[in-house]
Design a protein that fits this description.
This protein is mainly beta. It has one domain: 6 Propeller (Neuraminidase), CATH 2.120.10.30. Helix content is about 5%, strand content about 40%. It has two helices and 25 strands. The strands form five sheets. Strands 1, 2, 19, 20, 21, 22, 23, 24 and 25 form a nine-stranded mixed beta sheet that branches. The longest helix is centred in the C-terminal third of the chain and has 18 residues.
Length: about 325
């Protein structure tokens, strides 16, 4: 099965608010690595300054939490934010999966232990625990809960099992991404096969496979083949897909780093992939976050955060205007 690109697209509409950027003395972003929707507004991860900027729903009243260091509420290399129940999780890159938990207003609560190796994607569910990808010929994920130690789950589909056992490579460097929906469904974006493999809350049964849209997949596979030709076989320069995040309605937001779209909304039920389109001239190199209602864009030479509405319109054709 393949996802099909929808006849519609989410297109950036009216800019409602801005924060940072040249001449804005309210806050100076060093970099914008991630944005997360929280009940009071937005949390913005500044990776260069190693702190988090909290703002309300209109990007007002910026408040800075954290900073560089190893103490409680301080960060060495933060790279990702996630809401977990009523707390905010801050993931540390290259720390063996260390996670700091903050209260909704940013106060430090506790820090988790290491999971044993670097990870590139983590999903946390308040009931089902922590999920992170592993390199294995048999399983996609390790799951850890408060009362049960790490367990391998989500068996790799038979069609995807490598022919040569033990060829998985360096643990922790897998390009796979993971997201867990509110009902406990675990979605794995297989970076090698460019497919979404979904598991119900049993996790160890066979997953449902749905390949990404043909055009997107062909473009990415072509890039992988060119990389293999240039650098030798076995070299995988994947991760054109940089984020997989569950939305409240059960769909998934997938951020991409190539092509004409800055992301897609995947519907695992209908297998529709709705592209997210922004002005490529001005916003082509920035981070894009979509929460189902608004677009938040961050980046630029002088990093700026922008909040904009979205419109669901007929999908634009090459060289055409969606509106």
């Amino acid at each position: 099965m393949f996802f099909s690109e929808s006849d519609s697209a989410y297109v950036m509409g009216k800019v409602e608010a801005r924060l940072g950027g040249f001449g804005d003395d309210r806050v100076a972003f060093g970099s914008i690595l991630d944005v997360e929707k929280i009940p009071s507004g937005w949390a913005v991860l500044d990776g260069l300054n190693r702190h988090i900027v909290f703002v309300d729903g209109g990007l007002n009243s910026p408040r800075i939490v954290g900073g560089p260091g190893e103490g409680p509420g301080e960060f060495q290399a933060p790279w990702h934010l996630a809401m977990v129940g009523d707390t905010i999780a801050v993931f540390e890159k290259g720390s063996g999966g260390q996670v700091s938990y903050l209260a909704p207003q940013g106060g430090f609560l506790w820090r988790s232990g290491h999971v044993g190796h670097p990870v590139r994607s983590i999903a946390i569910h308040p009931e089902f625990g922590r999920f992170f990808p592993i390199l294995s010929t048999d399983y996609y994920l390790v799951r850890a809960t408060g009362d049960v130690g790490p367990q391998q789950i989500a068996r790799v589909p038979a069609a995807f099992v490598p022919e040569i056992k033990g060829s998985a490579g360096i643990a922790g460097m897998t390009p796979n991404l993971v997201a867990v929906a509110d009902d406990g469904t675990a979605h794995v974006l297989d970076g090698e096969h460019l497919a979404l493999v979904s598991y119900d809350a049993g996790y160890d049964t066979g997953g449902r496979i749905a390949f990404l849209p043909r055009e997107m997949r062909d473009q990415q596979l072509k890039g992988m083949a060119e990389a293999a030709t240039s650098f030798g076989p076995g070299v995988s320069l994947v991760q054109g897909v940089t984020m997989l995040d569950p939305l409240e309605d059960g769909r998934l937001f997938m951020r991409v780093a190539y092509g004409d779209s800055q992301g897609y909304v995947l519907d695992p039920g209908s297998l529709a992939a709705t592209p997210i389109v922004v002005d490529s001239g001005h916003w082509s190199q920035v981070l894009v976050y979509f929460d189902g209602k608004h677009l938040v864009l961050g980046g630029g030479l002088t990093p700026e955060l922008v909040l904009a509405t979205v419109e669901l319109v007929p999908r634009p054709t090459a060289g055409g205007d969606a509106r």
